[in-house]
What we know:
The chain has 293 residues and is of the alpha/beta class. Strands 1, 2, 3, 4, 5, 6, 7, 8 and 9 form a 9-stranded mixed beta sheet that branches. The protein has helices at 3-20, 33-42, 66-74, 101-104, 115-119, 133-140, 156-164, 178-187, 203-206, 225-233, 245-252, 257-265, 277-286, and strands at residues 50-54, 79-86, 92-94, 145-150, 171-174, 192-194, 215-217, 237-241, 271-274. The radius of gyration is 19 Å and the shape is globular. The chain contains 13 helices and 9 strands. Helix content is 39%, strand content 14%. Helix 7 (156-164) links the parallel strand 4 (145-150) and strand 5.
Amino acid sequence: MTARPAIVGLFAALAAGLAATPAPADPVCGATAVMSRLQAELARPRGTLLIAAHRAGHLEAPENSLTAIDEAVRAGADIIEIDVKVSADGVPFLMHDQTVTRTTGGVGDAERLTYAQVRNLRLEGSPEPPPTLVEALRSACGRVLVDLDLKTDRIAPIVAVVEGLEMTDQVLFFDSDIGVLRQVQRLAPKAMVMPRVGRPDGLASAAAGLTLVFVVHGDPDSLTSDLQAEIRGLPARTWVNSLGEVDAALAADQPDLCHRLRALLALDANVIQTDRPHDLRRALSACGLEAAR
């Protein structure tokens, strides 16, 4: 009989999350012209380059915050990448690290805290608490695609939130563990998943048993010409990161920036994740590599 209070507490916490932020669509996410365009692009494996904002617009706002989501949309991102964990009492919320210390100044393992304890934290330099996944998705609803980086093995509450908001067709699920992605699709057969391939011969094992693989996450070491052809054969888009040296070149407007961007695109990339979505779009246009919207 001990499970009933926990279940009641979970529903109460989810209800609180639903009530905390006004929804762009009520009661669930509705169709918009922006989202229809983005979904159509995502479904085109050889389509226009899509730009993903790493941890949302975190250079101008706390990472994984509602303000960062707004900033990423303002900066022209097509996709926001956000990190999701699950509280000790079952409420999904945004947090990258194992502990809450770096981003909130709080103490403790993020997934050992209750929803109430998470709600009492404040993101560094902000009055915002770490948002629930419900709040984050309702903020992104109809405005931008979402890549959920699964920082937990407790998948069911996350899938329940996405399906409950009827946003399965606006969300990618990412994890380096193929078993986690299989679990996502067992719970939600229509969920779009993004496996990661870390070696040239890894696509068969990385995508085994998965359906609706719209995107494959690769890197310069793994994305040989043979692997690029395999990804095209799925067919799927190829995701690469400009994080690190390329983003540093963007920030400094280095003379070799166009060369660096051409090298990324030569990996057959048509999704690029960056800390600088506005700067990346502008640089691609200036280099004659991608027309600005």
